[in-house]
Amino acid sequence: MSAGGVEALASEVRSGARSGREVVEESLGAIEDRNPDLAAFLRVMADEARAAADRVDAMVRAGDDPGPLAGVPVALKDNFCTRGVPTTCGSKILDGWRPPYSATVVRRLVDAGAVIVGKTNLDEFAMGSSTENSAFGATHNPHDPARVPGGSSGGSAAAVGADLVPLSFGSDTGGSIRQPASFCGVVGVKPTYGLVSRYGLVAFASSLDQIGPFGRSVRDAAVGLEVVAGHDPADSTSIHGDAPAVTPRLDEGVEGLRVGLVRELTGVDGLQPEVAQATSSAATALEAAGAIVDEVSVPSAAEALSAYYLLAPAEASSNLARFDGVRYGLRVDGDDVESMMAATRAAGFGAEVKRRIMLGTYALSAGYYDAYYGTAQRVRTLVIRDFDDVYRDHDVLLSPTSPTTAFALGERVDDPLAMYLSDVCTVPSNLSGHPAMNVPFGTDAAGLPIGVQVLAPALGEPVMFRVARAIELAALEGVSS
């Protein structure tokens, strides 16, 4: 595939310098070679991909423009509904289910000329931080197969990190794009809530979920975001109006921009010293490039993780009630409807999903609603207010993406609290609805990628990407080492 990124690759296909079929065969060959060891893909759509590439080539021969992603191989997290293609959400309860429609994001990618090559592995129903909760086996980190790729979008991150595809998409409820992007050494973006349609995304927590891209570069991720962003009348939470353009301003630099280092996130418990140093070095690099950097406080960010693990399970408890063995997916017979539903859910849901459903149901139950769910909602309001206060004087914020680099497979499976702490730096942006993204910035002593997080106010993607590009350039110049 083109070393120049997705724009160069699409340009080669549109000009006829390369065929879409040639490009997709290269991607499918890489998947065949590495996926058995990585388990990034749950399903490889080889025949469908070849047919799509042939359609792109036919358009080129006819003198038509297939779109900005002409012939670009793309991977999708397996919680995006894709018409006629099994969509499992990493769960036995949906094993073999074929949606009768495609998500808006999927349709926009196809309309842009992208070639969907497969569906990637994930923590079951996007509930996890390591992609070890999948009913179909764990995904491995492309930099060290003995370590996790992060989660829940670990398959999508690993697919880009292993160079199986140049672009992939995942969902981010509490860090599920940014944290695996950090672990796999790629760019990962959680856009402003409502900027990308959630229509056709199988819901985990509807007020928190957001779809975003993974790319090998900031520019690739920006191109991917521009293709899928924009209003969708099928999503009632979709933002009206035109989506902000990010690629035209990528290289404007950071001269005069105000950057805040978030005290509560740069000093979290368990912060790996190399991650702390990388974040500090990224701030120094921005300062050298002309930005004004200082330390800021977002006091409620320290409580965000606790609030998240009440709000997200509560919404999951409601959203996952639809999986009952009656309408679609797995069905385990019982003596009556109630026993059938209980048996289906017992067999179909994994341990982490059951844990979160029970936690959420408890938080919503009579006598506990105000004490738990109501209090968590008030904390969420404080998070939004605290971020708004800081953004009055700052254009973007900076923090680690995750407190550590990728941990070993199995290391945190039996310690849910340690697993949840992987998302301590990413969760606040989901509660606020603001955009945030991971940018690779060096490696630790074991050679594992380190990521830094750039955060911005609502619809602040153009400035956020400019800052991310400046950090990327500093990393390429060796400032992170």
Question: Characteristics of this structure?
Answer:
481 residues; alpha/beta; Amidase signature (AS) enzymes; 16 helices; 13% strand; globular
How would you sum up this structure, described in words?
It is globular and about 65 Å long. It is built from 16 helices and 11 strands. With 481 residues, the chain is α/β, with parallel strands linked by helices. Among the domains are: 6-245, Amidase signature (AS) domain (Amidase signature (AS) enzymes), CATH 3.90.1300; 305-370, no CATH class. Helices cover 40% and strands 13% of the residues. Helix 2 (20-38) packs antiparallel against helix 3 (46-61) and helix 10 crosses helix 12 (351-364). An 11-stranded mixed beta sheet has the order 1-3-2-4-6-5-10-11-9-7-8, with helices on both faces.
